[in-house]
Amino acid sequence: MPEVYAARRSRLRGRFNAAGSTAALVSRPANVRYLAGPVPDGAVLLVGRSDAHDLLVCPEPADDRAAGVRTDDSLRVQTLTAGAGDPAVAAADLAAGHDADCLAVEEHHLTVARHRALRSVLPASRLRLSDLGRAVEQLRVVKDEEEISCLRIGAEIADQALSELLESILVGRTERHLALELERRLVDHGADGPAFATSVATGPHSGRRSHRPTDRRVEEGDFLSVSLGASYRGYRCSIGRTFVIGTSPADWQIDLYDLVFAAQRAGREALVPGSAHRDVDHAARQVLDSAGYAEGLPARTGHGVGLEIDEDPQLAPAAMGKLDACVPVTVEPGVHLPGRGGVRIDDTLVVRPEADGGPELLTITTKELLAL
Amino acid sequence: MPEVYAARRSRLRGRFNAAGSTAALVSRPANVRYLAGPVPDGAVLLVGRSDAHDLLVCPEPADDRAAGVRTDDSLRVQTLTAGAGDPAVAAADLAAGHDADCLAVEEHHLTVARHRALRSVLPASRLRLSDLGRAVEQLRVVKDEEEISCLRIGAEIADQALSELLESILVGRTERHLALELERRLVDHGADGPAFATSVATGPHSGRRSHRPTDRRVEEGDFLSVSLGASYRGYRCSIGRTFVIGTSPADWQIDLYDLVFAAQRAGREALVPGSAHRDVDHAARQVLDSAGYAEGLPARTGHGVGLEIDEDPQLAPAAMGKLDACVPVTVEPGVHLPGRGGVRIDDTLVVRPEADGGPELLTITTKELLAL
To answer: Where is the Peptidase M24 domain positioned along the sequence (chains A, B) (predicted)?
Structure first.
């Protein structure tokens, strides 16, 4: 396991060296985790000119976390004492001490105030600052099989939580209660916690992209949209399904469901290594466009998942880039009709070579329209 | 209600005008909420030279949120279309259009990348950028009675959730389950949700300042530390209590509990308008120091609460400033003995004039050591 982190730091080193920097300061939490494993909040990572120069700088410890507790990795750790200030400043100071001349920082994460503090401690004569950009985010896009295994387990957990809920009585229960129930079951089945705020949307709320559960109660005849995910060893995935409550869906509900199902299937089938990200979005979007639903659609069909629930790549109309094998993404189109409700269907899949049978579906709960 | 927000913006206007800026761009979510009410994620607020020049700039809407839905306020709203970019850049552009010559931004929030994007759209000849600093955080410290009422209700909700848990069987249940149970009860009793990740710590985990609930089960003889809070209309408070499981606490448990109780009481009694923040910390800390627990104590005794669970003021040894009336704070000292456990007692109180009877205690669950 520790070799994985050292190997990732080494790949990052190659990238910023090629871009002209001698060291990098990684501060975005998910990026630090990717390169160093689970670390205390606020820790920053200095990636130096070789593995021996890499250093994790942690803020002062909680009351009982002993300094230097990391026994599973060759990465050196420095834990600051109370009042010692920003770990980023300490790390930059050390980089300058190692004769780094150009330190790449994450300008999309560091605030202006923190960056200014770095510069005040380190005049340009001593250390220049450059932008690391999204170099770590790019490294994170293609997952190794260990990462995919964590996502697969997380998806199983979410599937289990959902299937248990579907066996229970739903009519009369509030969106909030159902959401809390799902989150409890995620933890029961081994999740660290939910991957994101669980959404349960009934009746006119159904099909909304980001719906915060309310006290509305499930009623006969409702569409019920559920969106949830598990975090497992830091890896997050998502599943979304829409059901009908009661025995006989209305015609408009069947028609809308079939349409969104077709759009989502088109998106899934477009997941081929080498396909453009925007073409995956287009595949799903045009099914909905053709049926007259061009207005009010979500801005994107899906996105990558991993240590963050929302990461590169974006499956969106203006997205650049192409899919690689071993990239996990969501495919989650939907249609919401204000005042009536709607349908959202979301899977997490891993892009695989066509010769291996196409994308690996992680979220296997049926997508057939169930009447509950 | 809308008048409250306009009045707050007006107070902010006075501050940045005095500092030489003609407009301000507020981007930190809690600060935007304080000045404009609940807004969509990513919205930024431009505070201009008068109320008529104030503008909320929102990113593209979710699928069914109509643009311009705010009907309860005089604040103008602009909602961007898909692909229109960063609301902060749009807001800065508008500020320049209003002949602002110096725009104050929150340098402790905006990233280097976003700040650079603002500057590239707005050469210095057109609009200078300055630092707003923590002007909004400073305005937020003293609460009005409406805000205090929300905190009071949140505290009641937390007290209720805790008391219900104490009536249930605890032995044999895991920390995780108890934490989830508490969070469910918070929502049952009307909270928007938990104020922060609920902590339940048993046995050797008890008394730890930031403990993530594990699968350890409650056992006879354990200390059990619970830390939770409710979010109510955006306002967050916290309560922490420590109990003993079983009928007969050990002598070391009674002694440690009495000590932490005394420290916490000393902290509470130091909450007088005009007292230095560091003196409140000192009052609690010295009780623990005198008993030999100087090492490993938390860095601070407490902190302000409001729209964020952790805000100014800090009750810490190096803190500047003095208490005002109507400032809500936590007082939460504790001692944790690695491998044995410990005690943490946390209340949320509102500083009140001594003539009014001293600080108003919001979290009224008994602090007597209960054997459960």
So the answer is: 150-352
A64 → chain B, closest CA residue: B338
**Centroid of chain to Cα A349:** 13
Q: Is B145-361 the same fold as B2-140?
A: no
Which residues on neighbouring strands pair with residue B360, listed in sequence order? B350
Token pair for A87: 């770990």
Establish, for the pair of chains A and B, how many residue pairs have beta carbons separated by less than 8 Å. Answer: 84
- Which residues, including other chains, have CB under 8 Å from residue B305's CB and lie 6 or more apart? B151, B235, B236, B237, B238, B311, B328, B329, B330, B348
What does the pLDDT read at residue B156? 98
HSE value, Cβ hemisphere, 13 Å, CA-based, for B270: 26
The CA angle A30-A35-A41, to the nearest 5 degrees, is 45
- DSSP H or E stretch at residue B46: strand B44-47
Helix (H) or strand (E) holding B330: strand B328-331
Query: From the list B60, B66, B187, which residue is nearest A180 (CB)?
Result: B187
Token pair for residue A228?
A: 């949830």
Q: What is the DSSP letter of B364?
A: -
- Dihedral angle sign, alpha carbons of residues A146, A148, A153, A157: positive
Which architecture does CATH list for A145-361?
Alpha-Beta Complex (3.90)
Please state the pTM of the whole predicted model. Answer: 0.92
Whether B140 and B344 have beta carbons less than 8 Å apart is answered as no
What is the DSSP secondary structure assignment for residue A359, as one 8-state letter?
A: P
Distance CA A179, CA A79 (A): 39
Q: Which helix (H) or strand (E) holds B215?
A: none
Pairing of strands B302-304, A102-105: unpaired
pLDDT in tens, B3-52: 999 999 999 999 999 999 999 999 999 999 999 999 998 999 999 999 89
Q: How far apart are CA B89 and CA B116, in angstroms?
A: 10
Contacting residues for B149 by C-beta, under 8 A, at least 6 apart: none
B265 reaches A (C-beta below 8 A): no
Class of domain A2-140: alpha beta
- A184 near A144, Cβ under 8 Å? no
Determine the Cα–Cα distance for residues A351 and B82; give it in Å rounded to an integer: 27
Distance CA B130, CA A25 (A): 26
pLDDT above 70: percentage of residues in chain A: 97
* Sequence spans of domains, chain A: 2-140, 145-361
pLDDT interval class at B113 (50, 70, 90):
very high
Residue A215 near residue A187, CB atoms below 8 Å? no
Residue among A27, A63, A120 with most chain B CBs within 10 A, to mutate? A63
How far lies A129's CA from each of A42, A105, A117, B113, in Å?
20, 7, 12, 13
Alpha carbon of B8 to those of A82, A147, B40, B103: distances in Å? 35, 48, 19, 18
Estimate the crossing angle of helix B29-36 against helix B2-18, to 10 degrees. Answer: 120
Q: How far is CA B344 from CA A332, B201, B298, B337, in A?
A: 45, 10, 11, 12
Pick among A27, A58, A64, A174 to test the B interface (most B CBs inside 10 A): A64
Give the single-character DSSP code of A135. H
Structure tokens at A184: 């409890």
